[in-house]
Amino acid sequence: MTHPMPAIRLAVDIGGTFVDAMELDTRTHAVRFRKSPTTPARPWEGVLAAVGLLGTDPAEVELFIHGTTLGLNAVLERRGEATGIIANAGFRDVFLLGRGNVPADHMYDFQYQRPESLVRRAATIGVRGRLDYKGRVVEELDPDDVREAARILVEEQGVRTIAVCFLHSYLNPEHERRAAELVREAYPEVTVSVSTDIVREYREYERTSTTVLDAYIRPIFERYVDRLESGLAEDGFAGRFLIMRSGGGSMTSAVAKTSPMHTVLSGPAGGIAGAAYVAAALGRDNLLTFDIGGTSLDTCVIERGQAVAAYEAKLEQFPLLIPAYDIRTIGAGGGSIAYLDRGLLKVGPQSAGAVPGPVCYGRGGDRPTVTDAAVTLGYVDPDRFLGGDMRLHDEAARDALREQIAEPLGLAVEAAAAGVFDVLLAKTVGAVRQITVERGHDPRVFSLLAFGGAGPLLAPLLAREMGIPEVIVPFAPSGFSAWGMLTADIVDDVSRTVMTTLDDADLDALEAVFAEAESAAAASLAAQAIPAGQAVLERAMEVRYLGQEHSLTVPVGRDLRPDAVRAAFEELHHARYGHVMDNRLQILNLRVRGIGRIDKPELPAYEPGDGDPARARVGSRDAFDFGAREVTAFAVYDRAKLEPGDTLDGPALIDEGTSTTVVHSGQRVQVNPFGHLLVTLTPEVRS
């Protein structure tokens, strides 16, 4: 008897409040979606619970792809392992000193103190051995020094994980690799992170910071992935296990365990990957992603069909030399707490999280949140939350808002709840302006893709405020990040610092460096079971005007001639900054992205209906209309019953159980052939 080949793909995204699980049947293209509460103390249990709610047979799953904020939360909550640093003698304080800069919001605070470091000074040790600025050995590494440093760190300081980072090692990793080998021989139970295994770029502090954070989260990340893998295997899963990368794409779980730093911002990455896919399918070259979950709001620019990426990120005050989407994140989500500060209404960044959660969850939360305000304003049906699986305590939410916000401000409860949305909207406008107006983009030429549990609830309001002409609400928006993971190719990024002016560059030497980086990227893809015929290698140069601090990443092909590179740089510089200069150009880093293509889920088009949404109308509910600034009757529609071609005007609520799209007066909704909701201004308001 022959068994059918596995044909199910699962994507699971952990958020601050819920775990989202999405199932795709590759034979029928059918999609199913369920949510389960996040379990912060034992995060793998929430993942397995969400998979269990789907009822999927793990033996039928060919691919499991996962996005997680575990590493991010470990740093934010200081739950990583005790970490030590082995550096060059005389340079043990590179990480502790940092750059000496003061955050912008503390610029005039003369009492500002830097947050406590992740590593105690006693757990940083220098060893003899040096390379010069060209990577040549000036002093041989002293093995006895390394062994003694490891002994002190492990036996006296109690560290369980060690970061190894030496000066100029990005040009020659020999000393770092030997030091790591010596540490592992002496203490095989200790985790070792080596800077040149993570990133081979200049800037000692940034490279050390990246390595330290990798070491800090690696043990708990390895334990988490091991427990999740074993839990899935016990249920019969034998397919491929992939984990999302912060800069897009995915990697196998085995690679992720050796490079956990590349996962720290993987939570939002799935949504952005899906957004780029949707942008291409809908023919929208310019798109803004708008993802609001339980704890945060993330927004990113899709420009010319590509998500804007950066090659340096920041986690708290720590810089990270990792590829990551250029995302603006603020602490504003459904669980963000509303409170009064000296008589002023504020929202976030504190969040009620999954435990205890908003007041309306009835799990012990006693401080009003954005979700409580949404319930009070009539946007969320207490009986249909999560498709009816979770009854909300709407009266408790209303009482909390009345006692803590409305009465102290002398307002009606609805006015106080509307004020919570006004404050949230103001913070949101600021985040969107950072990645549009401040980058030379006009938000009025973009569409806004709204997802996350609360994205469709706020996006139409943001579009009114900023003049954004169109809001797109995909199917199952609260699980869109999980769906987006199903579109992610397997990716690895390789970089090499060269530091030369464009005019003086040796083209043969550049080609040799590119070839070595391409070989490393191809080897990584091969190790992740990508056949050579499915591997794509993309080249880029990081270039700047000589004397500048910031650079641009310029895609290049095989033509490395200076005039070709300069033309590509100037085109990008003019598009970004509106001008070019005659200054000489400097090449900083060469980059190669290896991409292993995987089959993408289709966006099925549906037959149009008769254009009349009456069949989907399930009633009416009083709610607050920001178009008229008053409570009025909203028509309520069941999204599952809407068909392509249907058109309806606000005020309206389109409910799909796990998310509600709030359409205010003066706005119109059309259902496109893929079942997406397109929210625009009505003709009379537009004119």
TrEMBL record:
Task: Report which residue ranges the record marks as coiled coil.
Answer: none
Q: Name a single GO cellular component.
A: cytosol
Q: Name one GO molecular function term.
A: 5-oxoprolinase (ATP-hydrolyzing) activity
UniProt domain Acetophenone carboxylase-like C-terminal: residue ranges:
508-672
Domain (Hydantoinase A/oxoprolinase): residue spans on this chain:
207-492
Tell me the ranges covered by the Hydantoinase/oxoprolinase N-terminal domain, including all copies.
9-185
Q: Which InterPro entries match?
A: ACX-like_C, Hydant_A_N, Hydantoinase_A, Oxoprolinase-like
What GO biological process term is on the record, naming one? glutathione metabolic process
In its UniProt entry, what is this protein called? Answer: N-methylhydantoinase A
- To which species is this protein native? Nonomuraea wenchangensis
UniProt lineage: Bacteria, Bacillati, Actinomycetota, Actinomycetes, Streptosporangiales
